[in-house]
Write a structure and sequence with these properties.
5% strand, 6 helices, 151 residues, mainly alpha, two-stranded antiparallel ribbon
Length: 151
């Protein structure tokens, strides 16, 4: 499950992407908060993190604010999830960047939990790594979500 922080980060980037696509310029924190529905105080920390990661730039002065500086088609949703939330693997032994052997595991090669979650996680990774911010901005191409009940 992604955190609220990640949801706000994605919404902020989508807001900046929409502004850029419509020929607009930099947006202030207040404008991003209003358009994205993210709380301003929380958004200030998120925008600093996104700026430090190279997704957005900031300008001072009258026409100041934040602007998307990395092209939307180059912003991987999987990479963004890792940037904001850290590892996304369901088990530490499946993580690409933060691999750790599970403390209670005798043998990774025969671990049934690792195999089962590994298959599910691999499917998830194939999709999440292929999605970009551009895909989210062009909502028409995203598939409908099937009704799966309460999880």
């Amino acid at each position: 499950m992604i955190s609220q922080k990640t949801k706000y980060a994605i919404k902020a980037l989508m807001t900046l992407g929409d502004e850029l696509a419509s020929g607009g310029s930099a947006l202030t924190i207040e404008e991003i908060a209003q358009r994205s529905g993210a709380p301003k105080r929380f958004l200030e920390h998120i925008m600093l993190e996104l700026r430090n990661a190279g997704y957005v730039g900031s300008r001072r002065g009258r026409a100041g604010g934040y602007v998307l500086i990395k092209p939307a088609q180059e912003i991987s949703i999987g990479e963004l999830l890792r940037q904001v939330d850290g590892p996304i693997a369901p088990l530490p032994c499946l993580s690409r960047r933060s691999y750790q052997r599970c403390e209670d595991c005798d043998d990774e090669k025969t671990c049934r939990l690792r195999k089962m979650f590994g298959q599910v996680f691999w499917s998830y990774l194939l999709l999440i790594e292929s999605l970009t911010l551009e895909d989210l901005l062009d909502q028409g191409d995203l598939p409908e979500i099937p009704e799966i009940g309460v999880a």
